[in-house]
Write a structure and sequence with these properties.
It is a single chain. The protein is of the alpha/beta class and about 325 residues long. Helices cover about 40% and strands about 15% of the residues. Strands 8-7-6-9-10-11-12 form a seven-stranded parallel sheet, with helices on both faces. The protein is globular. The two termini are about 25 Å apart.
Length: about 325
């Protein structure tokens, strides 16, 4: 079986080759997109990470592929419908860093509410110890609204309780037993937006959550609230977000993800490779506006990035592929 791993770090290669010693294994540090393709295209299994884009154009170049294994929980970088049409099995990692992402989330919460980044940057850049403009907000006793109470959302709730926060949550499939045990309350999305001092997003990205926070409901956000997004960029409508920040409805925003993130990272390639869509260009411009705003913190999709989490990701991916080879695949994207 010809198996190809892309976006691989040096420490991972030895583990991969040992796990699949009886197979023809190709390993590359590069990503796959329609603009970045390897010299060899006859692989039967592809394993990719979040910067690759497995769409119809890419799949056309890999006629023998029967399985795509992403080393991530999210799979919006893969055209799952097109894979299904071609009989290609898509595997994912359902959980690898619940605490990892939750810890990073609270790092962003504290950076926003206590102006840590600005404080550090001021000393490094200007050598100034002035406290002007650096007054923050206690989070003890404040209300945090958690949108999405899966594995990561639950971990964030546990941490919030440790800080003495009140917790409200929204989820189409509420876990009332967990809420009762931890002391949280499920509410409607509008009620959550209107009553949260901090809003933290942890829902998956799909057709139901696309622009979940949008121009129609952003006005319901409690004036002066903060928002953190370590889920997916497309959960928030960028135009509405910029409006909320400029109007003061949101006091600050911190995100590890952006809408049209791949296009923003590769904007030069996007501009020279044909005719980019007007909507993509518009969101790219809005992303640049966001990144320059003083009350916004953007990190480079780094919430997953701990040593322990990456080891769990690789181990689960190897198990996923081994299961597929044995005819007993697990963690299939439905």
């Amino acid at each position: 079986m010809r198996i190809a791993f892309f976006e691989i770090e040096e420490w991972e290669e030895k583990i991969i080759r040992e796990a699949f010693s009886g197979n023809d294994v190709f390993v590359s540090k590069d990503k796959i997109t329609s603009a970045y393709l390897p010299d060899k295209l006859d692989f039967e299994i592809l394993s990719v990470f979040i910067d690759s884009r497995i769409d119809k154009a890419v799949l056309d170049c890999f006629p023998r592929v029967k399985c795509v294994a992403t080393r991530s929980t999210g799979y919006d970088h893969i055209d799952v419908a097109e894979c299904k049409k071609r009989g290609i099995t898509v595997l994912y990692v359902p959980g690898y860093g619940d605490n990892t992402v939750a810890e990073f989330t609270f790092g962003l919460v504290l950076n926003l509410t206590r102006k840590m980044y600005q404080s550090i940057d001021q000393i490094k850049e200007r050598g100034s110890f002035s406290l002007d403009g650096l007054r923050g907000m206690d989070i003890k006793g404040k209300t945090i609204g958690i949108v999405g109470t899966g594995r990561i959302g639950k971990e964030v709730i546990k941490i919030a309780k440790g800080f003495g926060m009140n917790v409200i949550a929204h989820d189409p499939y509420p876990d009332e037993n967990f809420a009762k045990e931890i002391g949280a309350e499920y509410v409607s999305l509008d009620k959550l937006l209107g009553n949260s001092d901090i809003i933290s997003l942890h829902c998956p990205y799909n057709k139901d959550t696309h622009h979940l926070i949008n121009g129609k409901n952003v006005g319901n956000i409690k004036n002066g609230a903060y928002m953190v997004n370590t889920a997916r960029g497309g959960v928030v409508e960028t135009e509405a977000l910029v409006y909320a920040l400029k109007s003061g409805a949101l006091a600050g925003y911190a995100a590890d993800v952006l809408e049209e993130e791949g296009e923003t990272k590769e904007e030069l390639q996007l501009l020279v490779s044909g005719h980019p869509k007007e909507e993509e260009l518009k969101i790219m411009l809005e992303n640049h506006i966001l990144m320059k705003m003083p009350n916004v913190l953007i990190t480079p999709h780094n919430a997953f990035n701990s040593k322990e989490a990456l080891e769990r990701i690789l181990r689960t991916t190897i198990e996923n592929i081994e299961g597929y080879l044995k005819g007993t695949p697990a963690n299939i994207v439905q």
